[in-house]
Amino acid sequence: MVNWFQPPLQTKVxxxxxxxxxxxxxxxxxxxTMNIFHQLKTGGDPDFKDIYAEVxxxxxxxxxxxxxxxxxxxxxxxxxxxxxxFKTHSSPGPEGTPLPEMxxxxxxxxxxxxxxxxxxxxxxxxxxxxxxxxxNPKAFEYWGEPxxxxxxxxxxxxAFFDECVLPGFPNMPPEIVPPGGLLTMLFFGFVNGWWPLRxxxxxxxxxxxxxxADHEGSVRKIAKHLGFKPTEExxxxxxxxxxxxxxxxxxxxxxxxxxxxFPFILPGGMVRKGAQGKAAEDGMSPEIQAVIxxxxxxxxxxxxxxxxxxxxxxxxx
Length: 317
Hints:
Sulfotransferase_dom, 4-stranded parallel sheet, Rossmann fold, globular, sulfotransferase activity
């Protein structure tokens, strides 16, 4: 596990009534959804410097010696009259409560709002390889793990899948890696935890494929769920600033550029293609697809949850 990723931190946050939790697995639309929240909140803001300063990541430590209290106090001091959102890659337990012993650290409360986005794990995991490679080498040095990045660098996606995905992160003891490795850690455990909450009135489920197919409709759906009411004059700006084209033109705003002594992500590494149905171009093969589907069958017992994770569509009751 990379040391800057600290899921237990989020259990210490003093959430306020009405806060939004943006819960998305890695490479499944997290940064996009964070930006959508920010643009809806502001009515269209092209001048922000760092989306991670606007929407904190509640699992992220900015330095190896940073005390939790520094982050918790900073978030506590965010203006009370301005809506807050927090990013998480975690799920709650199956009953909606944190279960740290199972790695389920997300908090579910009836007085909080949730945007839960998922993506076909075949597409997300092929995007994960170049994303890891785009982490600034200085970050690994800063955290005292310069050799970690080298362990992630593989010549092909097949090698990455065999040596990093199925066995888990290179520094994880094998006895704590769940069956299915990163597939379970990133995707299958996530859907298992959130799925029972899918029809709660304070929870909005979206699939990445739906967001790509209907950008405006998805943004308007999020606005309605969160109670944002932009004016007709603001809507064109919001839709422009949440488009992939605008985000790619303004990559530096999404690369965690102000919270550390250096940009956390190298230029162009956060907002890539956002492509749907193009996993084969990044190395996905029928053989790897079969392995992923097999692990999904084993690790996601709810057939409807499995189907929705891979395909999206209407949510079952």
